């Protein structure tokens, strides 16, 4: 309560010459600091080895503008196969007894997988095929996974500041579409990654992406995965995008995307 009062006083401070809307936004971000997807899972959960395991699947969200100005928003699910001939699991397939078919993905190997996913999204869009995510309001997660956001545009970039102070993802706890939204308790270990995408004439597109892990953590037990006691968890969050202006002397414009999604438990394997 004292922190909330301090935030309100900060907004109303008559000595602060910062425009009111900036003060309000700054205060909101401070109040929501605990909702950022940047913490280390080991700061939240002690004494369990479950969270030592790396996911075997990437949920890759690819965003790009079309020539008519509309937005492409596709979800790709990439499984790290021990044998490339292994078929992808279906949306409802639980293959708990065959997890040796899919290998854990280490952070250090992410760039190689993301490069393949970008080339696929720019090309055939068949390996893997994409899922439509509509207007980003009803995302569904059924597997413990890397969650990757990739905006494939030159001058549209994820908001990038010192990640411990200003990460590009903010989880909100207000109702959305009639659904109560939970505080973040399952998305952790957020990182920025820079990547070069090869293009013709031996050139590269410089891109960056943001990745964090959906641990499918139970909100009630505080450990292990989501279970039947809290089968569905709805999350409402903002993605902050910086748009660079034609006039390079101008500061970038901040644009907010406001997706929503649900963890469906217990999680499928792998």
How would you characterize the overall build of this protein?
- With 270 residues, the chain is of the alpha+beta class.
- Helices cover 15% and strands 34% of the residues.
- The protein has helices at 2-12, 20-31, 41-44, 110-122; strands at 57-65, 71-79, 130-132, 139-143, 145-151, 156-158, 169-172, 187-199, 203-214, 232-243, 253-257, 260-268.
- Strands 3-2-1-5-9-8 form a 6-stranded mixed sheet, covered by helices on one side. Strands 4, 6, 7, 10, 11 and 12 form a 6-stranded mixed sheet that branches.
- Helix 1 (2-12) packs antiparallel against helix 2 (20-31).
- The chain is globular, with a radius of gyration of 20 Å.
- Mean pLDDT is 76; it is low at 1-13 and 18-38.
Summarize the structure.
15% of the residues lie in helices and 34% in strands. The protein is of the alpha+beta class and 270 residues long.
Q: For the CA atoms, what is the radius of gyration?
A: 20 Å
For the biggest β-sheet, the strand order reads: 3-2-1-5-9-8
From the helix content, strand content and strand pairing, which structural class follows? alpha+beta
Query: Which spans have pLDDT < 50 for at least 5 consecutive residues?
Result: 1-13, 18-38
Q: Name the helix and strand elements from N-terminus to C-terminus, one letter apiece.
A: HHHEEHEEEEEEEEEE
């Amino acid at each position: 309560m004292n922190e909330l009062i301090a935030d309100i006083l900060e907004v109303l401070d008559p000595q602060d010459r910062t425009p009111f809307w900036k003060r309000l936004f700054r205060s909101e971000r401070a109040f929501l600091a605990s909702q950022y997807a940047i913490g280390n899972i080991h700061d939240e959960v002690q004494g369990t080895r479950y969270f030592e395991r790396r996911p075997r699947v990437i949920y890759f969200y690819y965003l790009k503008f079309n020539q008519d100005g509309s937005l492409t928003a596709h979800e790709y699910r990439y499984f790290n196969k021990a044998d490339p001939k292994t078929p992808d699991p279906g949306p409802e397939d639980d293959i708990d007894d065959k997890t040796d078919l899919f290998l854990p993905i280490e952070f250090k190997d992410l760039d190689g997988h993301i490069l393949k996913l970008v080339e696929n999204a720019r090309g055939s869009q068949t390996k893997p095929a994409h899922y439509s995510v509509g207007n980003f309001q009803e995302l569904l997660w059924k597997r413990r996974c890397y969650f990757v956001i990739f905006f494939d545009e030159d001058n549209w970039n994820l908001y990038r500041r010192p990640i411990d102070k200003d990460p590009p993802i903010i989880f909100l706890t207000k109702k959305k579409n009639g659904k109560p939204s939970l505080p973040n308790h399952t998305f952790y270990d957020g990182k920025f990654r820079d990547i070069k995408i090869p293009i013709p004439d031996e050139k590269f597109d410089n891109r960056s992406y943001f990745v964090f892990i959906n641990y499918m953590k139970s909100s009630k037990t505080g450990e292990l995965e989501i279970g039947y006691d809290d089968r569905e968890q709805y999350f409402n969050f903002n993605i902050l995008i910086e748009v660079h202006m034609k006039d390079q002397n101008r500061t970038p414009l901040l644009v907010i995307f406001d997706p929503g999604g649900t963890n469906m438990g217990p999680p499928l394997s792998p």
